[in-house]
Amino acid sequence: TALEAEDPHGAIAAYKSLIHGNPRGAPADIQKAKEQSIARLARLYSRQGMSAELGAMLHELREYFNMVPKAKTARFVKTIVDELAEIPNTLPQQATLLRESIEWCREQKRTFLRQRLEARLATVLCEKGEYAAALTLIAQLMREIRKLDDKPLILEVQLTESRVQQSL
């Protein structure tokens, strides 16, 4: 929006107040405003190169994630991770954030999201040059997702495995 271009810090404050505050209005409108604010704040942090704030945002929103459906939570987490990936030279931060998020998914029993984050972590590990760790993670993940017969995820993980093998 115009506020993002003119005053990024003001826009950040406005988005945070929408996300963490208790705005008035119809519950459906409030929910939609919060969801849009989360996406816009993540995008703004990414454009401003604020990688630490993106990680902190993911941690701050975990309580909110417990109140929304798991599919929406997965979409929000994916959006934040994707926005972090847009910032140059953030591979170590991406790996750390993904590992923390995977652990949170295990605690919350969010298998679908955890598997997708593990696939993303394998890609990040490959990009970082940590091929042995990537292959270990891929082998473990493949055993698990073959049982579920999740063909798109199987394909994604196999492509990542091919990239790792080619890099060796």
What does this structure look like?
The chain has helices at 2-6, 8-20, 27-48, 51-60, 62-65, 70-85, 91-108, 111-128, 131-148, 151-167. It is mainly α and 168 residues long. Helix 4 runs antiparallel to helix 6 (70-85) and helix 7 (91-108) runs antiparallel to helix 8.
Give a quick summary of the entry:
This protein is mostly helical and 168 residues long.
The end-to-end span amounts to 45 Å
Number of helices: 10
Helix content: over 70%
The major beta sheet can be summarized as:
none
In N-to-C order, the SSE pattern is HHHHHHHHHH
Unreliable spans are: none
**Structural class, judged by helices and strands?**
mainly alpha
> What does the overall shape look like?
globular
**Oligomerization state of this entry?**
single chain
**Strand content bin:** under 5%
- The beta-strand count equals 0
Radius of gyration: 17 Å
Overall mean pLDDT stands at 87
Features:
mainly alpha; 10 helices; globular; single chain; 168 residues
Q: Which SSEs are present, and which pair or pack?
A:
Blueprint: H1 2-6, H2 8-20, H3 27-48, H4 51-60, H5 62-65, H6 70-85, H7 91-108, H8 111-128, H9 131-148, H10 151-167
